[in-house]
Amino acid sequence: MTAKITLLTASLCLALSACSNNEPANKQTDAAKDINFLAFGDGGYHVDYPKTKHIKNPRNKAQFIEKEREDWQEDYRPMSEFDHAPIYVYPNTQIATEKGGALAVGTAMASLCKTKACEFGIQLGDNIYPDGAAADDGKDDQKRMNDLILAPLKPLFEQQPELIVYSALGNHDWKTSRKGVALQTKWMAEQPNFHLDANGYYSYKMGEPGNDVEFFVLDTNMLLSGQTFYEVPLNPDGSEKPDHIALKDGTAELEEHEPHEKPAKGEDTKQLKWLAEGLENSTAKWKLVYGHHILWSIGGTKYSEGHVLRKLLMPSLCENADAYIAGHEHDLELLTDDCSKYINESGKKLPLIISGAASKMRGKHTPFAEFQERNYPEYDLVWSKSFVWGFAHINLDNSKDELNVEFYTTPTDGSGKLVTEQSFSFEHRTQ
Questions:
Q1: 156-210 residue pLDDT tens
Q2: Is residue 75 part of a domain?
Q3: Is residue 228 assigned to a domain?
Q4: Residue 347 lies in a domain
Q5: Where are the beta strands (DSSP E) in 131-259?
Q6: Which domain holds residue 19?
Q7: Is this structure's pTM higher than 0.90?
Q8: What's the number of domains the chain is made of?
Q9: Among 269, 314, 335, 413, which is least packed, fewest CB within 10 Å?
Q10: Would you call 11 exposed, middle or buried from its count of C-beta atoms within 10 A (0-12, 13-18, 19+)?
């Protein structure tokens, strides 16, 4: 990792002319002191690697869309908002599945980085879909990782050969085995443009002292697999069904993780302690945390996980972090939590950035979003966009002490055209 950071630092020095002997560091421009990076997640999907259920139960285009419609209704989503991802039909068949947008997103990111600083990237998990490396599908793992992780980002790396992506693990990366996780970690260690620590969670710093940022990368699947909780369905009006009622009427389903996913030797407890102590003791100006799973979202299917992770993470985040960034929901969202449930004084809101639309799409659940707004005063939905392919660009403006996040999408025609959506600013919230 040290070599990769050294390479990145040298490249940035050249790009910004900030480390030249002819220009002392104290004369850097304000822009040179900023930190700029890409944030994207759930990009590891391609039609050549379909879900097992789609292989065993193939559907034509009309049947595929009808099944999407049935699932939409079962979740009590308004039919007026029904939509679906663009459809791909395998050549010489009638078998349909959803198209992937990974290459289009990679092309769009490369386009953005021609005009906007992109010093590195953060990858928010589900880098390999649907079953991680070492899947029992007869496919070569080196090719799988080249296809799903590397190929979509080639437009970016060809443009910026020095750019490094710092990756997190998602639930699909964990799906097959610990061997699969180890294979992905080993593959990334052999790539000049990727980094993923062997134990799945790690920290690293970027920027010069006084204007730097420390990132804390979580393995949220490890944290969730160490907890006992239930997936509880929503009521027909989009409200959350209380756990005790769902348990009584039999609609609550125990969230079960495979044996290999469960923490070994207290891995989850160690990770939580590492995060709390790392955030508290960090000397960096900015402290950003990212992982795969969400804390809040409006998708209407991940909220049980959100309840669990908020209990585990929010006390540390509210005290000592400037933002939390996640994927998991296949959309773009910006939310905040005012931290009033975790600290005595209500301070600056904690930004929660979701950027999980790098290849798959998902719809929002409007009645559920409205329920959350009514029932959780600490929570606020700032902006969202569903059924899109896209990503986020984040700027840490050290001259203004602001975190700026911009969201971008790309059309479903696969052109990779860059579409600017929205931008938002937040005050620096930690000391």
A1: 999 999 999 999 999 999 999 999 999 999 999 999 999 999 999 999 999 999 9
A2: no
A3: yes
A4: yes
A5: 165-167, 194-195, 202-206, 213-217, 230-231, 253-254
A6: 2-47+100-427
A7: yes
A8: 1
A9: 413
A10: middle
